[in-house]
Fold:
Amino acid sequence: MEVTTQWQDNCLTVPVNTSNGSNSLYETLTQAHTVASTQSAKEGWATIFQVNEETTISSLDYLSSLFDFETWAKDKGCVSLAIVMPEAMLDNYEAITPLLQLMHKRARVFFNLEDAQQWSIEMKQARRRELLH
Structure:
């Protein structure tokens, strides 16, 4: 499986398709680690995971692995983790409840990329303000 990540404006964007199970998510997260490690990321970078519509509801269990990445990324200076997922996944609220319970100030679920990007920008700006004071 080839993962096409994008690094732009100090933000790592990673497509996620877990329809093939945990192995494909493992490969995705490995690629995300590699890209983030090789970039000249400074304090205050962001990550956006875009969950593909082909992701099956049952494979959402694997999405909790994103928070292992988030812990690693936080130690590397990442200030936010946004997960963009199709609204159709809300139809099975029980499947996403464990994921939503993992949310905290630096990680959120969005249903469109633009909102996730805007929040990531705001989080990076807030971190820069913190560093100035």
Remarks:
- The two ends are 44 Å apart (CA to CA).
